Amino acid sequence: MALQNNMDFPGSDVAQVYASDAKHCQQLCTAHPSCMFFTFVRPDWTRDNRHFYCYFKVTASGEPKIQTLIFGATSGYSLRSCTPELTEFPVYQNVDFLGADYKTLFTANYGDCQRVCTDDPFSWVRTPVEGVDFWGEDIQNRMVDSAEACQKACDEDDKCQFYTYLTEQFIDRDYRHRCFLKRTITIPAPPKIVKLQNVVSGFSLMAVP
């Protein structure tokens, strides 16, 4: 289902987590057993400092009680109701998307494999995000030369789920080029996301939720 920009589904909250963007919020909602729809507060939200908040919502009807136009919010629905058909996503016979694997498991057929991929909250969040700090939950930190090297360090650490890298332009010289590897034992999402200049954050390409 399409995301609705500048739309709020107020009320009916069952949980709140942090997400890196609206698609990530949608995937987290899909993975949650109760979430039917959601509202994500974008970085350009100006009413308060609730940036990157992802609100899971549920009603008896499965539809929002209220829909309000408001700048800085994006809303949408769980993909769970869409996954039995998956008609909008084609499959390709005799084609291999080579490399970039981060999880292997057995399924009965390619349709089940596609559903597992769709339900995986990590499958849509492979691109690092600039100007965003995945705050807290550090398991270690080290000095590296680049955001790519920090990504590689996270990939090679079986405990790392996501990371934040402080660039050469970071305001505090003592922390420049520092790579923070992170992990949470709850839902596979950073416990807090904040806007911060001259940092790069991303997810392990090898992480298993």
TrEMBL record:
Annotated SUPFAM superfamilies: Hairpin loop containing domain-like
Keyword tags: Disulfide bond, Repeat
Residue stretches making up the Apple domain: 117-207
Pfam families membership: PAN_4
SMART domains referenced in this protein's UniProt entry, alphabetically: APPLE (SM00223)
GO BP terms in the entry: proteolysis
UniProt GO cellular component terms: extracellular region
The UniProt record lists the keyword Lipoprotein: no
Domain of life, per lineage: Eukaryota
Name of the protein in its database record: Apple domain-containing protein
Organism expressing this protein natively: Takifugu flavidus (sansaifugu)
